[in-house]
Amino acid sequence: MYEVHAFFAEGEATKAMEPEYEAGERYVLIVFCRRPRYSVHDFKLVEEVAGRFGWEDVQVSHGGVLQPEFLNGDLCDLQDSFIEALHKGGAVVSLNDWLMCALYVR
Are 90 and 33 in contact (CB under 8 A)? Predict the structure, then answer.
C-alpha cells in the first residue's frame, strides 16, 4: 500500500523546459512522491523526482503526507498529480501553473 508525500521546493528550469519555463530561472514547485505507507520523508527522492521532470538544483522546503480526501473542492486541481504520483512514482507541478489553474486564470 502506498501514500503520496507532497513537498514544497524550489528548482531551476533547464534549457529543455523552454519555452514553458525560462532556463536558469528558479520556480516554486510542488513535488509529489509515492512512498510506502507510514514511511519517513525521503528528501533525496524529492530531488530525484524533480530531476526526472527536468528541474535542477532543487532545494526542498517542507512537506507532508497528502490526504486524498482533501483533494476535493479548492484542491481538486491536484488530483491528477496525486494519481500520477501513485501510478508513476512521482509528479511535479510548478506553483505558478497550479495557482493559474486553481484560480481559473486563463
Answer: yes
Task: Tell me how far apart the alpha carbons of residues 74 and 77 are, in angstroms, rounded to a whole number.
Answer: 8
pLDDT in single tens digits along all 106 residues of the chain: 899 999 999 999 999 999 999 999 999 999 999 999 999 999 999 999 999 999 999 999 888 898 887 777 666 668 888 889 999 999 998 877 766 565 554 4
What's this model's pTM, rounded to 2 decimal places? 0.84
* C-alpha span between 32 and 30 (Å, rounded): 7
Residue positions counted in the chain: 106
Q: State which H helix or E strand residue 92 sits in.
A: strand 90-94
One-letter amino acid for residue 40 of the chain = V
